[in-house]
Amino acid sequence: MRTKNILPILFILIIAIATASAGTENTNDDSLILLKTGYIDTDNTDMTIQDISTISTDTTEGYYIVQFTGPVKDIWKQEMAYAGASIQGYVPNNAFIFMMTNEVKDQIGSFEFVKWVGEYRPSYKYDPQLTQTNSIQTSSTDVDTENIYFVLLFSSDDYESTASSIELLGGNILSGSEDILKVQVTTDIIPEIAAMTSVSWIEEYVQPTISNDIAADIINATTTHETYGLNGSGQIIAVADSGLDTGVNDSSMHADIRGRIVSIIQTYADGSSADYNGHGTHVAGSVLGNGSLSDGQYSGIAPEARLVFQALGDNAGSSLIYVPSDLKDLFQEAYNEGAKIHTNSWGGASNGAYTTLSLQVDQFVWEHPDMLILFAAGNSGVDPNEDGVIDEYSIDYPATAKNCLTVGASENERGDTFSIGTYSTWGLKWPAYYPASPIYEDYMADDSQGIAAFSSRGPTQDGRIKPDVVAPGTFIISTRSSLGSATGWGIVDDNYLYMGGTSMATPITAGSAALIRQYYTDVENLTSPSAALLKATIINGAMNITPGQYGTGATQEINGIPDNSSGWGRVDIENSIYPQYPDVIEYFDNPQQLNLSDSWNVSYNVTEGSDTLKATLVWTDHYNLSESAEKALINDLDLIIVAPDDTYYGNNGPDTVNNVEGIELADPTPGTYTIKVNGTAVQIGPQNFSLVIYSTFDINEYPSNGSYTTNGSTAVSLNLSHPYGINQSTINMTIDSSEVIHSLESITGGYKVENVTAQPYIEGYHNVSVTALTNQSEEISYDWQFYASVEDNIITIDGLAENSVLQEETFEINISNNKYCDLWYNIDNGNNSSIETGFSFNTTLNLTEGQYNLTVFAEDITGYVNSTTVNFTVFTTQPTIDLPDTGTIYYHPDDNFSLNGTAGIATNVSVYINGNLTNGSWPVSNGVFNLTNIPLSNGTNTVNVTSIFNNSETDHLSSNTTIYLSLGETFDTTGYDEVTFNLQGLATNVSDPAFNFNITGTPSNPGNISAAVVRGNEPGNGSVLTGSAIDIRVINESDPEYSYQFGRNVSLTLGYDHILVNDTDKLAVAWYDPDEGMWIPFRSTVNITAHTVTTNITHLSIYAPVEDNTAPVISDLENSRTSSSITLSWNGSDDTDHVEVWKNGVFLNNVSDQQISDTGLSASTSYSYGLRPIDFTGNIGNWTNTTVATTASTTTSSSGGGGGGGGGGGSSGEEYENIGFKDVLTVYAGKDDIVNFDFDDEKNDIDYVRYLSLKNAGKISTTIEILKDTSALVDDPVPGKVYRNLNIWVGKTGYAIEANIQDPIIGFRVSKEWIQNNNIDVDTIALNRYSDDTWGKLSTEQSGSDDEYIYFEASTPGFSPFAITADEPDVIEDDEAEQVADISDASTETEDTDTTTSDESGKLPALSGIVTIAILAVTCVLIRKQQN
C-alpha cells in the first residue's frame, strides 16, 4: 500500500472539514456552497485561507469556485470572461467553477458581484467513502481492492494526458470518450488521481442491470384506444434493453412486433442482438406489441407505434447491461433514427445519488428537448428495519436525472386467488426483504391502489421528488422471446409470459407517452411537442392513489402527492388528455423563455361550482453542473397561483430543488386566478418551460344534474364554454335521445344553449346531452339528467289482496308507483327490506304459516313518503299425525283408534277412512287435535287427514297427510300342531281360509298368533303380489318389534288370488325384508285347485304369495386353485335353487351350494367356467364367466377373499373330498335378536351357534362342514390331539363381522369314549380357530354332559376353519389309567363333595394341579431371568 501521500491527504481533508463545517439545516442559505463532500459557509470562511494554493505560479491555470452575491446574471458572467476566467460547471448556491490563473483570481476577487473565491481542491472531487476501508492493514503485503470508477475531466483536451498519468499510477483504462474515462484502479490511488488538475470528479461505477391486458385498463389506455382512436400511429419509440427476440428484423421476429421495426442496433458489440434473457422482448411488447398472437388481448399500450431497438445484453442471457461510457451516444443513435421517446428498464444501485450517467441524461435532453427519456426507478425497495414501511432513498441511477421521467411500480389487479405458481405474498416470496406486516401478508398483485413493495422509493440524495409517476408493474403479461430460457414470473404460453418490476411499469408509461405525443401531433397539431410538455401532461393527469393499499396509520404507504412512493400518482392517459367535460386541460409549451427575474402568467375566471384547479410546471433544466455539486438543480423556476383568497406556491414551496412543480386546489373560491411562472434563479439562461392546467368550467346546467322540477314545461339550458372557444355550428342538443331545437346566447368562451319544450315532460328522469367542437376541432360533450315530478305518489301491490289466504309459503308480489321512488317494505313492523329504486319492482316472499301484515313505503324525489298496509294469511301446513304411527296394527275387539297431532293455524280437520268421511270435521284447539273412536275396517285402512282454515266463510283445505292402519285378529294355538285361520279383510278372490300353520315338532307352541292384512309394496322387476300381504306375529307387549323364532322349519300355507296369476309355476311364498325393502321368495309348492301356496319358515314376519318373475343373479365370484384343482365360490340371490356350472363349454354340475371344487386337473392349465343361476320358480339368470389357471406347483393360490379368516364368514373353499358331512340351517336374524342355530343331526358335533344380531339381516344360513382331515384352507395342522376338524360359515361373505353380530359363541360336544380311549385331560379340551395364517385357542368352558358326550361352549371372534383338540396325554401308570376310566363319575360330582373322601376319584386333578404349579414355577423363573 502506498503511504507517501498520507500526510498531504490528511491535511487536505482537515481543510475541507474546516471549511465545510457549517450547519446543513437550510440549504437555501445563499452563504452556503453545497458540495457532495460537504458545505462551505462563505460567510464564515476567510478568503485568505484559500490563498494557500496548490497552484504553483500566478500564470498557471487552475480551477476555482466563485460564489456570486446572488443568482448569476449574464452580465456578470461576461465580465468574468473579459477578465480571463473560463466558466465550467454550476455549483449551488449561486456559484460556478472557473478555470483561471492566480493573477485572474486576484483580480475578480475585487468584483462587487463576487462574494467568495476558493480553489477547487482535490478533496472536493470524490466522496471520502470511496477511500474508506472497514479494516486496518497490518502488513505491507495487503493489497487494495481494484474497483471500477468514472473519472470526469474538465476538458476533452486533457483525455490522453490524464489517461497516461493514471496508467503510470497502475490504473487500467477500460473505456472512455471525450471528457470521461472508465478506469479500474485500487482505492489508494484515488487521492492521487483527484490531485490531477484536469480531473473534475471521480465516482464509483456500478454495473447497470435490467431493472398488459389488465394494466392497460388500469391506466385507461383501452379507453384511449377505443374512444379517441389513439394507438401510437406515427410515433417512433426507442427501447434499450437486453435484446429483441431473434435479433433479426425478418419473419423470425415475434409476430406482435414484426413489421414495425425501424432499426435494430447492436449497441453492445457481442455479435448478436438476440434476446437470450427475455427481458428486452417483454419490455418492447409492453410498449408497442400489437397482440396479434392473442387476438389483441395482450397488446402493448401503443400497438401501432414503430420501434428502434438498441441491444445492450450479452449472449449468456445474464441480467447485466453494457452501456456506453457516455449515454449521449446511446440516445443519439436512437434520435438519429427518428425516435422521440426513449425507454430504459435498467439502472444501477446508487441510493438516490445523482451520478455522471444522470448528468449525461440531463445534458442530452437539454440539447434535444423534443426527446422524452424514461428510466425505471429500480427494484431496491426493502424494509430492513422491519417497521412495515419500505425505506426511502433507494432510486437507481440514472433514474435520478432531473430531465427524465422516472417510473415506479404500482400493483396490478390479479386478486388473491391468481393461479400462477409464483404468485404469493411479498413476505412469503422474499421474507428477508419484507418481514413485517402489513407488507408480509400482502399479495403481490391484488390492489392497483398500492405500490409494489420492491419499487425503489425517493427522494434523491439532494431531496428531489422521485419517482415522477408509477404504473402497474407486477405480473405483467407481454411478449416472450423465442430464444430466452427464463420463465419470468410465470409462463402464459409459447408467445407470452409474466414479468414484474419497475422494468415493466416503465414501458407501459413509455407507451402512454406515445399516445399523448400522438394527441399533441395529430389533434393539437404541434409539430414537435417538447419532452417537458409530455412529462407535465403525464404528471398532471396522474391519479392520486393516496393513502395506498395499507390505509392510514403508522404503515400508511402514500402520504398525498407528491410523495416518495408514488411521485405524482399513477399514470392515467385519459385523464391526462381527455378529462371528462366540464373538466378541461390547457397546455403551454415553451410560451416564453425566462431569464433571471423574468415572469410569465395567464389568468382564469373560476366560477361557482368549479371543483378543481390544477397546474403542473416542468422545465428541462441545464446540465452544466459540477459533478461535485450537492444539489442538481441549476435554474430555479417557481409556479405561483394568485387566488382571490391566497397565494399558492408549487410543491407547497417556494421549491428550490425540483424541476417539476405542481399546485392542486380543490373547490376553488370563485374569482380570477393568475397562474405565474417566475424565473427566480436562472443561473444559465434562457430557460424554457411547459405548463399544463386542469380546470373545471362552470356549465350551470338547468335543471341541475340529478335535481327535480315540478314544472312539466321547464326550460333546459347549459353554459357551454372552453378555453379554445366553441364552434357555434357544431352545437347539438338532445333530450331523451331526440334532437331538440335550441337557442344560443353568447357567453365568455362559448354559448348558453337552451331548449323550451312545447310538450310537457312526463313523470320520470329525462336525459340531456349537448355536444360541440371547440375552435381547435376537439370534441366535447356533457350529459346530465333531471327528474320531472308531475304525478301523485300512489302505491299499488299486485299479487296480494287485503285479507287474502295464500296456500304457498313462497310467492311473488309486484310493488309499483306512479312516481320514480325509493321503495321498501316490512312485515309485521319488523326490519325494513333493502331499498329498490324505480317505478316498480318484483319481490319474492318466503313465509311460514301464519297471519301477517305487509307495509310498503315509497319515498319520491321530493322527499315525500307514502305507505300502505295489507293483511293476509299464509296457510300451507299439512296436519302432522303424532299417533298412531303408520303401519300400526289393531286387533279385534279393538276396532277403532284415537288420532292426535298438530294442524298449525287450521280451524278444523277432517278424517277419511278408505275414502269415506268420518264424523264431518273435528275442531282444532291452539293448533292441536285429539280425536277418538274412529272406526276401522277389517284389513288395511287408508287414513287421510286434511286441515281446514275457515276465512270469511270460505274454507281453505290443506293437502292430505296419509297413514296406513290395519285391523287384524288373534288366534288361539294352544294344543294344536296344525292351525287354519279365517282372516277378515282379505283381497278379492283370495282363498279363505287365508293361511295354515303346521307347527308339528316345534319345541314349544306360542299359544296364540296374531295376524292382519297389511299394505304390501309390489316387488317389481316383473314380479307381482298375487294376494294379500299378511303380518303374522306373536304379540310381545314389551317389544313391538319382537319376531317369534320357531327354531325349526314350520309349514306355512297362504291363499292367492288366481285372477292375478299369469303362471302358477312361478308362485311362491315370499318374506318381506324391511332392511333391504324387498320380497324374498322361498321354495314353495302350489295347490292349483285350492289356490294356495306352501313353504317352510323359521320365524314370524310379513308374508305374501307372489308370482316370481325376477331372475336370480351371481355376484362376488372368487376362486382358489392348486396344481390339480380349482374351487369357485360366489354369492347368489336368496331364492337361488341351484347354479349350472359349465367348464370349457361342457356341462360340469348343478350346484345347490355357493361353491364348487373341480379336481383332477392338469397343472399350469387355464380353464374357462360359465355359471348360470336358476331360482326356486325356474327363473334363469345371466351367465357369469371366468377363466382360471391351475398352479405349476402344489402350493395353494387364491384370488379374491377366499373362504375364511379375519372374523368374517362366507362361501367355503374346502375341497369336496375332505368334507365328511355338511349341515346347513337357515333362520331369521332381526335387529337385537339372539339368533340361535340349533343343530340336531347325530353326525354333527356342533350343538349350536348363537350370537346377538345388530341389524335386520333377514334369513341367514349357517353351514357346518365336518372334515375328514385338516382343512384345505390352512397351511399347518392344529397342534395337540385332534378330536375333530371342521369349518363353520355364517351368512354370506362379509356378514359375520363386528358391525353385524356381537358375542358369537359355539356349542360343541366331545365323545366320552374318545376321551377315555386317548387318556385325555378334560380341562385341556378346547376349540381352536384358524385366522391370519395361525391357529389360536379359544376361551372354552365345559357346559354339561350326558351319557355319551361332554358339552362345551367357546367364544369366537369370527367364523373360519376350526378344530376341537386336547393336549397330548402324558404316559401314566395302570392305576392312573383306572382313575381315568372313572372320569364320568368325577365330572358329575357336586361342588360340595368333601375333598378328603375323594382320593380315588381326584388323583388326576391333583396331578394336573401339580403339573400346573411346576409349569408356573418354571415360567416365573424364565420370566425373571429374561427380565434380569
Automatic annotation (TrEMBL):
GO terms (BP aspect): proteolysis
Domain Peptidase S8/S53 residue range list: 232-569
Record keyword Transmembrane present: yes
Coiled-coil residues: none
Organism: Methanolobus profundi
Protein name: PGF-pre-PGF domain-containing protein
PANTHER family tied to this protein: CELL WALL-ASSOCIATED PROTEASE, SUBTILISIN-RELATED
CDD domains: Peptidases_S8_Kp43_protease (cd04842)
